[in-house]
């Protein structure tokens, strides 16, 4: 008998005002995409369509949103933003609909 038999692959845990989801499996990309899409809809989260290996995540502090755009590749990548004009907090420049990320680069945008 294997130690993980009869145990859940996905579990959730309510904590404070949030909920954590744990996936205890190496899912194929299509299955993981399906779950992330379901959770984004269930929790009313923003889901961004990005090039492969580009991560966009939003963090909130009080009434302000900060968007982190991370390039996990060794290539220069252009990313179309899903929102209009924003401020790049690392360069203090106004950014319009598209940004360019250096290899393994990061942008922090104020939304």
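^ Assign residues to that structure.
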């Amino acid at each position: 008998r294997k130690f993980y038999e009869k145990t859940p692959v996905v579990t959730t845990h309510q904590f404070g005002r949030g909920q954590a989801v744990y996936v205890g499996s190496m899912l194929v990309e299509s299955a993981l995409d399906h779950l992330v899409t379901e959770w984004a809809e269930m929790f009313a989260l923003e889901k961004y369509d990005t090039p492969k290996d580009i991560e966009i995540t939003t963090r909130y502090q009080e009434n302000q949103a900060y968007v982190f755009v991370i390039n996990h590749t060794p290539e220069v990548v252009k990313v179309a933003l899903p929102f209009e004009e924003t401020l790049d907090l690392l360069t203090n420049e106004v950014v319009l609909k598209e940004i360019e990320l250096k290899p393994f680069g990061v942008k922090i945008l104020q939304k």
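The first strand starts at residue 10 and ends at 15.
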